[in-house]
Write a structure and sequence with these properties.
This protein has 263 residues and is mainly α. It has 12 helices and no strands.
Length: 263
């Protein structure tokens, strides 16, 4: 760790790397996000060797931000590490406080999740403020929808049953259909369709939360499934001496069904 910090400091020195020296928090933020996604990708693929490399790349991003902050006199890497240590101890009283006092005992993962969220809520707004405070704007939209609806549910703004949430999805879909039909009649409510599609996606994310499904992970899995099946269709068409793009929709759908049945 000391070696990594030393390398980062050297790269940012007056006679260091010109590219590294000109970077700011804002300029490297996209790289930080990209590296986090590459970590997630390695995990999904079960590529442990690649995971080690990607975790190193992500750690470098943390060190990079800390170095820039240190140069500005704001904080350094030691402060970052100290802050997360304090937070982890504070948010796990059943582990650290129990060990120190001998009181309390093991709790379930579900109970710990409640403790963690309550601790986060106190830190966000100890006296007053919105229950939605602190949900980062930069999150992927689907993930942010999930978190916003989860926060709202914590203060009682939620459907009682998942079936009611599913009904809301159906209602939003009907509104999309209505807006689309109006556009076909020449009313051209393009902005309305845009908003209705957004409402439909938000409702779907809320339904996923209600069913305890990670909406972002579910959509990534659906993307991967679609890509796998589509590539298989292309390969199957090629095996038969056909060009997939030249086939009509009925023939393409037949290939889709064949690929789907083969899985």
């Amino acid at each position: 760790m000391r070696e990594l910090l030393g390398i980062m400091k050297r790269l940012r020195a007056a006679d260091g790397c010109p590219w590294d020296r000109q970077q700011t928090f804002a300029s490297i933020a996209p790289y930080t996000i990209e590296e986090a996604y590459e970590v997630a990708d390695a995990i999904e693929r079960g590529d442990v060797a690649h995971l080690k490399e990607e975790l190193g790349d992500l750690l470098f991003q943390v060190v990079f931000h800390a170095q820039i902050a240190g140069e500005a006199g704001a904080f350094d890497f030691e402060a970052v590490a100290s802050a997360i240590c304090d937070k982890l101890v504070r948010r796990h009283p059943h582990v650290f406080a129990a060990a120190a006092t001998g009181e309390g005992g093991p709790i379930t993962a579900a109970e710990q999740s409640v403790v963690w969220e309550e601790s986060k809520a106190r830190e966000r707004h100890p006296v007053s403020g919105s229950a939605l405070s602190g949900v980062p704007q930069a999150l992927p939209a689907l993930m942010r929808a999930y978190k916003l609806s989860k926060r709202a549910a914590r203060v009682g703004f939620d459907f009682e049953h998942a079936s009611q949430t599913a009904d809301k999805v159906a209602e939003e879909l009907a509104e999309v259909r209505e807006a689309a039909a109006a556009e076909l009649r020449g009313a051209a409510p393009s902005r309305e369709i845009f908003e209705e599609i957004g409402d439909l996606l938000f409702a779907a994310a809320n339904l996923a939360r209600k069913l305890e499904v990670d909406a972002e992970a579910a959509l990534r899995a659906a993307n991967a499934k679609f890509e796998r099946r589509f590539r298989a269709m292309e390969a199957l068409a090629q095996e038969r001496g056909e060009r997939f793009a030249s086939l009509d929709l009925a023939a393409q759908e037949q290939l889709w069904l064949e690929v789907k049945r083969a899985e």
